[in-house]
Write a structure and sequence with these properties.
This protein is α/β, with parallel strands linked by helices and about 140 residues long. Helices cover about 45% and strands about 15% of the residues. The relative contact order is 0.24.
Length: about 140
Amino acid sequence: MSKVEDFLTISQEQEIIEAIRLAEQNTSGEIRVHLETTTDKEPLERAKEVFAFLKMDQTAQQNGVLFYVAVDDKKFSILGDKGIDDAVPNNFWDSIRDIVISEFKKGNYTQGLKQGILETGLKLKHYFPYQNNDKNELPDSISLS
């Protein structure tokens, strides 16, 4: 079994999915997590490929967010869609990235992802607040490759 399948238990996956659901109660932003074993690319470049493959670039407000992890390589990236990048300051993702990486360095992968996801929901609330008619455009499940 590859490390990507061992990275999170079923219970931990459910905790992360619940964090996505909670975060999306604050924002119309759409958050996903993608895990894969390895990549020979820079994590941000690979995240862009995965973002397109998952059709995250097709949300109405262009407000998708991808948390990308290459498990064996210990590579991580956060990617926001064009609508987010156009609305937020250049350093918007820095504090979220730092939270996640800080927990990852301690081996707290679930906690790092959960904290990063919840913080994303809180920070995006200002730019993309949740609307009563908000439609969940992307699945909350964790994608694997």
